[in-house]
Amino acid sequence: MIARRTVVLLGLSQLVCWGITYYLIGGFGASIVADLRWPPTVVYGGFSAALLVMGLVSPVTGRLIDRFGGRPVMAAGSLCSAVGCAGIALSHGVLLYYAAWLCLGLAMRLTLYDAAFAALARLGGPDARQPMAQITLLGGLSSTVFWPLGHRLALAFGWRGALLAYAGFALLTLPLHLAIPAGRYRASAGITHAAPPALAAEGSQRLLAGGLYVVIVTLTNFLNSGMSAHMIDILAGLGLGAGLAVWISTLRGIGQSSSRLCEVAFGKRLHPLQLNLFATAGLPLCFLAGVFSGHYLAAAVVFAFVYGASNGLVTITRGTLPLVLFDHRTYGSFVGQLLVPSFLLSAVSPLAYAFVIAHFGERAALDLSIALAGVVVLAAAILKARFHPAATATPPSQGLSR
Question: What's the Rg (C-alpha) of the chain?
Answer without folding.
Answer: 20
